[in-house]
Amino acid sequence: MTKILCILVLIGATIMTGHSQETASEYVSPSQAVPKGKAPKMQVQLLNPGEATKRYAVIFYQGDEAFSGLLEFAEKYQVTSAHFTAIGAVSGATLGWFDPERKMYKKIPIDSQHEVIGMSGDIALYQGKPVVHTHMVVGNPDGTTRGGHVLAAYVSPTLEVMVTVDPITMQKRFDPATDLTLIDPAVK
Questions:
Q1: What domain range is 39 assigned to?
Q2: Which of 38, 156, 163, 177 has the fewest CB atoms lying closer than 10 Å?
Q3: Tens digit of each residue's pLDDT (9 = 90 or more) over 113-172
Q4: CATH code: domain of residue 153
Q5: What residues have CB less than 8 Å from 173, skipping those under 6 apart?
Q6: Strand 43-46 relative to strand 54-61: parallel, antiparallel, unpaired?
Q7: Domain count, the chain
Q8: CA distances for 83 relative to 2, 12, 39, 58, 112, angstroms
Q9: Residue 15 domain flag
Q10: pTM
């Protein structure tokens, strides 16, 4: 009987360990939700030279990871405040749903070709560096949709992002209640 009890305890511990590891990998903290890919084919064109409010076309191509590419764009062009929209398609993505109780994003994997029905977001500074915040809605082959916070987006064949860069700087602050960095117009 003792031997059977020990085996049941070990099985239970194994199941619990496996479940907690699985659950942990389903979530990512906001501080870990940073771009990791590259966008070597990204092209940028300034659409209205000489104006205070600049407008750019930022175009991604097959295999580019768009989230990291937008961060690269913001750093290279010294963007301190912007907003953007996009359409196109992805071959895969990881979106996220923010769980306020866990203060983490629950990953939503997109594992095949999907149309980007809409993507919108903003860029602001946190501790002197640009931060990209973007959400995306993708269309499944059957016409249903999925959406969330963009953690990664792999372009196929293109993603066309129209960026408006504002002439003022927007700042973010850390919010300890959510562990997120939030835009705060009062921060100078």
A1: 28-183
A2: 177
A3: 999 999 999 999 999 999 999 999 999 999 999 999 999 999 999 999 999 999 999 999
A4: 3.30.1330.80
A5: 126, 181, 182, 184, 187
A6: antiparallel
A7: 1
A8: 64, 49, 19, 12, 27
A9: no
A10: 0.84
